[in-house]
Write a structure and sequence with these properties.
Two copies of one chain form a homodimer. The first copy, chain A, is mainly α. Chain A has nine helices and three strands; from the N terminus they run H-E-H-H-E-E-H-H-H-H-H-H. Chain A folds into two domains: about 80 residues, Winged helix-like DNA-binding domain superfamily/Winged helix DNA-binding domain (Arc Repressor Mutant, subunit A, Orthogonal Bundle); about 90 residues. Chain A binds a DNA duplex through helix 2 and helix 3.
DNA sequence: AGGTTCATGTAACCCGTTACATGATTTC
DNA sequence: GAAATCATGTAACGGGTTACATGAACCT
């Protein structure tokens, strides 16, 4: 059960396709028109990525003919694609995930309600919180020991990193509360 | 005056080499032992990157023989390399820089005291602040309009994005104050 | 004598970027 | 009739990841 060769962009596509079937053009528009604009909407990235997903059996495409309108190729998530999305989302959170930028972790989380449900989302948040809480002190102590020898810009940049992780930790705590509240209503 | 073909890793190397001459091995250790650990310390990335920088005349290497110790190849920034670093750092800040992740912007800033001095660092921070302040409302209004139709995890992920940009804005304001204070002392 | 650290590389693979290319349909 | 939008591709290029490879010096 390994995640063979799907890029972050690939998972982003799987996540969006989970909601509804879309064409490559739809997906490009989606990326450019929502906060997922951090992904490139260039045809040179999306069309090849969709082709790769189809080769691996994670999506299935069909041509949609529309009178008057352009014909287009609609993509739908296959059961294997949905399973691979869940596998990726459920991976344990390790320090390296935190270090290499939290963008991928947030992507994993953002589709989680639909694919895994709130209980798993809560588990994710709890693990995320723990990993953040474990990592921040190492940054703090680096600043403590080296801050006085660093240039102002360097020190400020480091402080920004610490702030960013701390506001993420706050966010995680609040998100956990949101899920606990929504579970009480059941 | 365009920035022909230097990757983010390349600029990170130029920035670190600005402080002192180092070998490839030193640079790998530096990346793995400091908060710059977000860069890969694998030999497969660093040695080829150094070779490319030397081909472009941005660094110059020499072999250092040390009795008893291992011989190693020390890299030094050339004047052209220092100039290219400054050119990269001085580029205007555009919305796209904000959207594609602020890591590269923070990297640009973190070496700025040594290369461009505090006045330029202040200019950078002011532009950064303005660009952030201009971008955040568009995220807010997206949340306003679409939040009610989004799943909880998706909405929380979006809120996290907004929070992150806002804490960055706070940081920028404080950093500006730090520079203004340090200028008063002149 | 054997394992760890120092030190530097190469090569295959994947994939994102950029640019180019095409054609239908809609709008003014 | 021209411009913008819809819609889907291809191809060259660059560079990061991973894995493989080598050898000297140091420590026990």
């Amino acid at each position: 059960m390994k995640g063979l060769g799907v890029s972050v962009l690939g998972y982003a596509l799987l996540g969006v396709l989970q909601q509804q079937d879309r064409s490559g053009y739809d997906l490009r528009k989606f990326f450019s028109a929502t906060p997922m604009i951090s992904f490139s909407d260039s045809p040179g990235s999306i069309y090849p990525a969709l082709r790769r997903l189809e080769e691996r059996g994670l999506v299935k495409s069909r041509i949609q003919e529309r009178s008057g309108l352009h014909r287009r190729r609609l993509y739908r998530l296959t059961p294997a694609g949905a399973a691979e999305l869940r596998r990726w989302q459920k991976q344990p959170i390790v320090r390296d995930d935190i270090i290499r930028g939290t963008a991928e972790l947030m992507l994993r989380f953002s589709f989680m309600d639909q694919s895994l449900g709130p209980a798993e989302a809560l588990r994710f948040l709890t693990a995320f919180k723990a990993e953040l809480a474990a990592y921040i002190p190492s940054l703090r102590s680096f600043l403590e020991e080296n801050g006085k020898y660093m240039a102002l810009s360097g020190r400020l940049a480091l402080e920004n990193g610490i702030n960013a992780y701390e506001s993420l930790l706050d966010w995680a705590r609040n998100a956990i509360k949101s899920y606990e509240k929504s579970q009480e209503r059941d």
